[in-house]
Amino acid sequence: MYPEHAPRVPAQRAVEVHQPTPLPPVVAVPAPIVPVQPGAVPTVASVVLPDGRVVTGYAISPMQPDPVTAKPAVSRAAVNVALGGVGFLAVCGGLLMLNAFITALTALVIQLVILAAVIFGGWIAVQIFSASGHKSGTTVHIRKAVIKRNHFHG
Fold first, then answer.
1. Most CB atoms closer than 10 Å: which of 15, 21, 67, 79?
2. Quick check: 137 pLDDT over 90?
3. Sign of CA dihedral 121, 125, 127, 128
């Protein structure tokens, strides 16, 4: 693409300077005023007030509102689709809340089972390790039994 042995001198590059072109100033010319006569001369009305004063002015016809166009009826299919979508979202939300409730209830039951196991285990430990308990026929002290069998009296 480029010749390999072309002499390049960076200081000898041509520099092209662009100068902005000034725009002529805009002179605002006022538009000529053309008098226009109204299509019809409005009638002047005079009204006599109850206290005897006379008010004179132009009669203004009341403004008529635009006729209301009849709204197109919403189709029953569109209403049913919209209500079905709202119902579907309500069911999804309810199922999500039911899922959260079941999860919380499961966690509560698990905690109650663990609490019952700790309490019952503690009661069993107290029954086994208590020294001030009444002697029953099922309690066997191995050392005393061995000592009695070998006739060691202390």
1. 79
2. no
3. positive
